[in-house]
Structure formats: C-alpha cells, structure tokens
C-alpha cells in the first residue's frame, strides 16, 4: 500500500474521515439532525432513542420534506439545498450549510431516510448501511422527514469504544435538546427513550410559555434569581437572563449562549462574561445564564468549525466591549430588570 502513489479515497472512506470530525457520539448526530429539521421549518420534532442513542436514534419532523428525486442526493457529500454561491456563504441564515452531516452519519451507521415533501402525495424511503445505499422506494408518511440512525459505529469498532454507557450518552443527548429548545421556543420537542417520554417541551408562544421552558431547563429557581437583559448597540443586540451572582454553581454547566440562534462556545464571549462577574463572584463559582446575541450575519463567520460550535467574529474587540459593558451594568444593578418582565 505504501508505495508512494497517490490515490483518490473512495467515497465511503472520505465520508468516514469527515465523520471523524463531526460525528463523535450520538449527541453529535442528534445536533445535526435537529438542525436539519429546524432548517426545514419543522414545528414538531420527536426524538426516539434506544441505548442512549447508540442502538437507535431517530428524529421525526413535520418540515418541508425532501422531494423523492433528491432523496439520494441528500446523502451525497457536499450536496445541500442551503447554499449555492459564495455570497450565500457570507451570510448564512440556516443552521446547516456544509452538506456533510447525512453522508458522514450514513458512513458509520445503518441509516434510513424517509421523507415526504410538502405538496407530494407519496413518501420515499432509502436505506444506507455503512455508506452503501439501496434505491429509493415508495413509502407512506405524513409530510415531513424521519431519519433513523441505528447501530452507530457498527463498522468502526475503534470509535464505538470511545462511547460511554447508555446513561451518559442519554444525558448528552438531553443536553443537546435543552440547548436547541432554548433557541427555538415555538417548536414542540419530545424525547422518548425505549418508549418512555423523558422530555417534553410544548410550543412556547407567549412570554409565560417561554418562561416555563427556561424554568424547565435551568430549574424553577432560576428566573426569580435572574436579571432580564435587553440591550442594543452598534448593530449588536443582547437579550436573555443573567443569573444573580448570589445564585451560583460549583460547575459552569448551566450556561447558555447563543449567537444568531446557534449555541456557541467562544473565547471572546467567555472572557467578557468572566470579567463582568469577576468582582462579584468567587473564582471557583459559576453563574447561570441564558443569553442571546444577535448580529448581522456578515459580522460573524460560522464556517470555521466542522460541528459549527465555534465562530469567528469580524470585530472581536468591539463585541467584547459591548458584552462586557452591557453585562457589567446589569450585574451592578443598573439597567437590569428584576424579576423578569418580558421573555424574548
Ligand atoms: P446541510 O444541512 O449542511 O445542507 P446535511 O447533510 O445535513 O447538509 O443535509 C443534506 C440536505 O438534505 C439538506 O441540505 C436538506 O436539503 C436535506 N435534508 C436533510 N434533513 C432534512 C430534513 N429533516 N427535512 C428536509 N430536508 C432535509
Ligand atoms: Mg445539516
């Protein structure tokens, strides 16, 4: 093999390499599938798990669906309905855009794609095992899409060894769902494992519903111990809830920060938050927060991380100043509204 000759990787192998970056565990699949459902305009999404998602992970939506003639294309690398030009890439309005998730997932699992496009009277179904697809066949389904992912990493046992037990994988899936649910209030979400409903987020359309969802995620005590924040400056808008310094945790696991609707971890943001709380919190304690930053899409590059968990800001310094000063003012008791008045 090592004869120095250059060979083109076969498609499945190329997808498995891509999967190495994006598909680490069931929760990474769940994130990608939920993003696809949301991009498809779904209003109801149902997640089914078996074995924490390792044996089965399925996501079912009522979105726009996939036309039958495009079904097999959805599983090809770099095939996407979301971007077509360089200009599109400069201002991404969808969660997905890389056209990589489905082929990557399909290369390391047994995947079934079942979809009925709105306006079609039939659904179509396709099965892929380790990257090899069956031809699409006619099927029955209400408009929308179901993606079923079974036997994750059955063909890459080395990757399967890195998974934890079903309980640990389940809780990572639940974490992904909580994050996404906080960014998509109007959507109904249900998570079922082995036939039992574990999480249910009804559509949150008014302020009370939204507050209920926030309380369901961060705990009943959070909103009574949080400052509501709503601030705009120089094209940046920040809203959400900032936990009082007195309502802190030993671990920073109840911190949610969204950039244009995407859960993001970012050094600039992290620094601004730590600096804003620095004077009022012991160093080993962590605040709780749910914050939504909105900025023009051309001011943030979302195409820097395969799983889209990181972004690059065009002007990190300016953003840092905006965040730090806004948060600091609210924490210092000027400009925050307590208790919550309006829920975004
Ligand atoms: P991307 O989301 O980056 O476009 P994916 O591999 O995740 O790439 O999906 C490929 C394509 O399959 C999408 O662009 C979309 O057209 C279609 N698709 C995937 N999931 C769904 C869904 N739940 N509903 C409708 N279309 C979908
Ligand atoms: Mg996608």
What distinguishing features does this structure have?
29% helix; binds magnesium ion; alpha+beta; Heat Shock Protein 90; 9-stranded mixed beta sheet; 9 helices; 344 residues; single chain; globular; binds adenosine-5'-diphosphate; 5-stranded mixed beta sheet; 18 strands; Ribosomal Protein S5, domain 2
Question: What would your notes on this structure say?
Answer:
- The protein is α+β, with helices and mostly antiparallel strands and 344 residues long.
- The chain has 2 domains: 11-201, 2-Layer Sandwich (Heat Shock Protein 90); 218-331, Ribosomal Protein S5, domain 2.
- Helix content is 29%, strand content 26%.
- It is built from 9 helices and 18 strands.
- It has helices spanning 11-22, 26-39, 86-90, 101-107, 157-160, 166-183, 207-218, 267-277, 316-331, and strands at 44-50, 56-61, 110-116, 123-129, 132-133, 137-139, 144-150, 188-193, 196-201, 226-233, 236-243, 248-249, 255-259, 262-263, 286-287, 289-294, 300-301, 312-313.
- The strands form 4 sheets. Strands 1, 2, 3, 4, 5, 6, 7, 8 and 9 form a 9-stranded mixed beta sheet that branches.
- The radius of gyration is 21 Å and the shape is globular.
- It starts with 10 loop residues before the first helix and ends in a 13-residue tail after the last helix.
- Mean pLDDT is 91; it is low at 339-344.
- It binds adenosine-5'-diphosphate (ADP) and magnesium ion (MG).
- Residues 32, 36-37, 40, 61, 63-66, 74, 80-82, 96-102, 145 line the site of adenosine-5'-diphosphate.
